[in-house]
Amino acid sequence: MTEGNTIRILDGSTFVVSEDTGDIEATPSEPTGMFSLDTRFLSRWVLTVNGERLNTLSYDDLQYYEARFFLVPGMATHYVDAKLSIIRERVVGGSFREQLTILNHDEKPVDLRVRMDAGSDFADLFQVKDEIVNKKGELYAEAEADRLRLGYRRGNFRRETVISCSRTARYDRNGFEFSVHLEPNEQWSTDIDVQTFALGPGGRDLRMGVRAHGTERLALQQDLQEWIAAAPKVNTECEHLARTYQRSLVDLAALRFSPLSLGGSTLPAAGLPWFMTMFGRDSILTCLQVLPYAPALSKTTLRILASLQGTRFDDFRDEDPGRILHEMRYGETAAFEEQPHSPYYGSVDATPLFVVLLDEYERWSGDESLVRELEQECRAALKWIDDYADLVGNGYVWYERRNTDTGLENQCWKDSWDSISYRDGTLLPFPRATCEVQGYAYDAKMRAARMAREFWGDPAYGDQLEREATLLKERFNRDWWVDDGQFYALALDPDGRRADVLSSNIGHLLWSGIVDHDRAGRIAEHLVGPRLFSGWGVRTLAEGEVRYNPIGYHNGTIWPFDNSFIAWGLRRYGFAEEAAVIANGILDAARYFDGRLPEAFGGYQRELTKFPVEYPTACSPQAWSTGAPMLLLRTMLGIEPHEGHLSVEPCLPVGMGRIEMLDIPGRWGKVDAFARGRLDLHNLAD
């Protein structure tokens, strides 16, 4: 099944990917079907009428959680003169419901055999991703008088899909069917209910927030209305910005995920289809992006990450005391430790970013109680930076996996195997230290110093942290600067040799504040210069580097999230016009994706393409791409918390027109921000 004819609906970690007829015919290697808890609960869902497959007239993806398909029997022809039409309406909200309606347009009565073939391979999402076919447990199907039960068991690990209908049906092991008689102009309908069950050790039910029968759509509609109503209102003369903002708000709502231990509180899942679960780095960065719009997500994220913070040394999970998790999974492979995500801690940046988010959240919200509540977790995170992450002993944060079988090799955000190289294209040995992580560590210590003085009653600890941060900044600006390129190296190897390539990571250094001010102007020039900036956005790796590839995952593509933090960093150092250049490029690109920015897109020069080139396997929607327009909007408006108030210093592109952001929530209550575009970006970019 190609990307172009798939329909996706989702609600947190539960999602359905089908053909545009509504049918599902999953293969072992495609993420099609109904998934929840990292498990595919439906892999076959095929509707026929009198033995015929159905042809699509049209479909509507009404909201992120529902879709409607208009169908007729038979194959597609240039002219369809159907005597029957079929409507499939489906909604996903913890469970999966489909309403099937058949209309007889003939002048004669008809008798129909309506059948739904149903089945499940109960594939773990990792097995789909890695194309692993063989299951080690037992699949079963049980046809009962009023339902079909599909199941999988392996020891005390058990998953079940239970299918029932509002009309009398005949169930068999491969599906169910109805005998339908329709008079002329009569219609018939039935509701089909698909419930998922996940039984853990001891038979414990791990279902994800299943709502009462028949209430899914109403509850989801009300929830979405409340979500949108609580967010700031954006009024703008720029239609594509308004459309992108609205799409981002809705997609962020769709990606809200409630871990099993939170009892309904939500945080952002990383992205559909592969990453519909909790990720430390992704969730934290998304929360930073959307703080002015949905601050409650940060509180939930901080609490759940703190509760799962590392407490021991575990080589299989790459766990250390104080380390913040990278990824949490609930599927079969995690349950049987065939991969380490239960949870897995192989991220080098989530731990300092945890401290950064807590401080930024307090600056916005004024929630001092959470800062005090998480003091010990913050101290443990800072201890991890100093005691366990410095693998070489020179004061930097390094990474090297201890789980050499299934652990992540690259534990920075550019986690593909070939993303960290020298100028000649060869890859660095391990351990590796990437530049942006040193910036995160610096920022974490500076922010923790403030929290220690103001909330933890420990000014001496605050002074210590600030001294350590100052020394780190001095060492970094000495050791990482590439003189012949006038930029910071992407990484260091354990011998101190620089990965002397020009990369987008230098923008994160501006965001963290670790860049010496006398070098910031040169970094800004690189970020909007022709080697890094394509016209659509900043490339992950500069054109001209040996490994540069405009569709290389981390070696030349453009990542919207990356660009949003780069723009924020430029604003921090006073480069508002350069930040607006980047914001304008990314927001222009968004209109070609119907307002939904993908995970990444091609790094081709803008003059070569009339539209941004899609990256073939990009996740969409993806949390930190969804958050990118929100952070770019904040950056253009120049809104920052300052001494308990909200400051506004806008710098908008020409043609952006007037922007109003109303009811921005924070410790100040709710305030408004206004701006009008005035900057000539074309002259600056040239």
From TrEMBL:
Pfam families: GDE_N_bis, MGH1-like_GH
Domain Mannosylglycerate hydrolase MGH1-like glycoside hydrolase: 335-593
Signal peptide positions on this chain: none
Gene3D superfamilies hit by this protein: 1.50.10.10
Domain Putative glycogen debranching enzyme N-terminal: 10-192
InterPro entries from the UniProt entry: 6-hairpin_glycosidase_sf, 6hp_glycosidase-like_sf, GDE_N_bis, MGH1-like_GH
SUPFAM superfamilies, per database record: Six-hairpin glycosidases
Biological processes annotated in GO: carbohydrate metabolic process
Protein name: Glycogen debranching enzyme (Alpha-1,6-glucosidase)
Species, as recorded: Micromonospora carbonacea
